[in-house]
Amino acid sequence: MRESCGIFGIYGRRIDIARLIFFALFALQHRGQESSGIAVCDGDGIKARTNRGLVSQAFTESDLAQLQGHIGIGHNLYSASGSRQLGSVGPVVAGIKDPALAVSHNGNILNAKPLRDELQMRGYSFHTATDSEVIANLILASPGNNWQERIRHAMHRLQGAYSLTLLTRDKLIAVRDPMGVRPLCLGTIDSGYVVASESCALDHLGAQFFRDVEPGEIIVIDDNGIESFKGKGDSKKALCIFEYIYFARPDSVIEGKLLYEARQAMGAELSRQYPVDADLVTGIPDSATAAGIGYAEASGIPYCEGLLKNRYVGRTFIQPDQRLRDLGVQLKFNPLSQVISGKRLVVVDDSIVRGTTTPHVVKLLRNAGAKEVHLRICAPPLCHPCFLGVDLATQWELIANRKTVPEIRDFLGADSLGYLTVDALLRAVGLPRDLFCLSCFTGDYPIPVQMGMDKLATEMPLQGELVGTQD
User: Fold this and answer.
1) Which of 121, 140, 280, 394 is the one with CA 20 to 30 A from 169?
2) CATH no. for residue 262?
3) Is the residue at 469 inside a domain?
4) What pLDDT digit, counting tens, does each position of 146-198 carry?
């Protein structure tokens, strides 16, 4: 399961803008690993550099040296279906004659196709299949006396999830959709300002966290300072709960909550909900490490690193041969046999989506000598697809949609299986239920589900039903 993108923006004089964006994108690498881009402006023209690969592969010293300016935005991409092409790398730069606007977008616009068709009829050209370019052209086409008026008009027409950083010739603008689906925060650095998907990016730069951008808010930053324009605030809130379970880094703070502490609390809730006689607790690294520690502390069962993770798997252009492909998760995880052999293990993981990887993890632990394997999952059963920017899987691929919990346990080869309930998850996070989108668990979508299904149908090829495979 992957989330769409990481975005960043910075405004400041006498600051090495491009280099700071470069390091901020490093901090946000977990949110997108397909490509990276930087766009800057010095008060005149917009310059951009984009490339495929990780941040370290996408830019050279020469690239950064050419990106001079006092305003800039950055983008790490995990592309959605239908936009995996070289021109789709963000930030997207748009303008009828000269580049007038650059956009970095995190989310998913459900009515992108009809908006695109309308804009093309009005003479706006498109060079990518991205929602970002639809947003950019819609803003350019919207009426208004200034950028905030044009953006507000565009927001009334956009349906879906969008956190944005926008670059004009003299302004940095941050926008968050009225539902607040994706996180976005504001900070200060020296005499300037920064905007980022997560607060961890600010920490790496020595910037000071100020606050979250509010749902429906437009923030405009220029030489006159910072100005906020807020919406009516009457929309249903739908912050993605998976930011707390998996997507965001554990050292980030969202809605005043440190994610490491929230994940520890998830593990503690699991220990109370599903106690078991065991010798050791381990968390699947890295996303479930904090939850595993929380389970161990609450249950009194010692914690251990039962699996070590090779953090470089999947981050190379060199493909493994068939023999290594057959080894599956052994490329990613290596069990500590001398630690877990003969032991009854509680294994904490963040979620189970298709159920294709977990059986191999269970088998790996058993082959390393584990006497029992008891799975504990921080997320409730995933039964419904996401239409708001998460590459979650179609409904028929979700194992919890097709099988009962006992059937999933047997399929995975575990001795027991326990999913955290929605109520326990919300207790762990410590925020009100009506703040979150829980639709992947409950099927209660914050927007009409048919709109999301229509977009999915236009982006994905027709697929037959898959039954009982582990591919």
Assistant:
1) 121
2) 3.40.50.2020
3) no
4) 999 999 999 999 999 999 999 999 999 999 999 999 999 999 999 899 999 99
Catalytic residues: 5
Would you say residue 245 lies in a domain?
Answer: no
Spell out the residues 6+ positions from residue 139 whose beta carbon is closer than 8 angstroms to its own: 101, 103, 147, 150, 151, 154, 166
Confidence of residue 324 (pLDDT cuts 50, 70, 90): low
249 within a domain of the structure (yes/no) = no
CA distances in angstroms from 145 to 115, 245, 257, listed in the order given = 22, 42, 38
Token duo for residue 245 = 């379970």
Q: Are 76 and 124 part of one and the same domain? A: yes
- Tell me which long-range contacts 52-55 makes (C-beta under 8 A, separation of at least 24): 52/86, 52/89, 53/317, 54/29, 54/315, 55/22, 55/25, 55/26, 55/29
Residue 18 lies in domain: 2-235
Strand partners, 257: 254
Residue type (1 letter), 293: I
- Name the domain count of the chain: 2
Q: Which residues pair with 212 in a beta bridge?
A: 185
Average confidence (pLDDT) over 245-267: 97
Taking the C-alpha atoms of residue 47 and residue 24, their distance in angstroms, rounded to an integer, is 18
Cis peptide before 391 (omega within 30 of 0): no
Regarding beta strands 172-176 and 218-222, do their DSSP bridges make them parallel or antiparallel, or are they unpaired? antiparallel
Question: Do residues 188 and 205 lie in contact, with contact meaning Cβ atoms separated by under 8 Å?
Answer: no
CATH of the domain at 231: 3.60.20.10
Same domain, 226 and 265: no
Q: Would you say residue 27 lies in a domain?
A: yes
Same domain, 11 and 143: yes
| Max intra-chain CA distance, the chain | 71
Domain boundary pick from 188, 203, 235: 235
Q: Are residues 223 and 274 both part of a single domain?
A: no
| 370: enclosing H helix or E strand | none
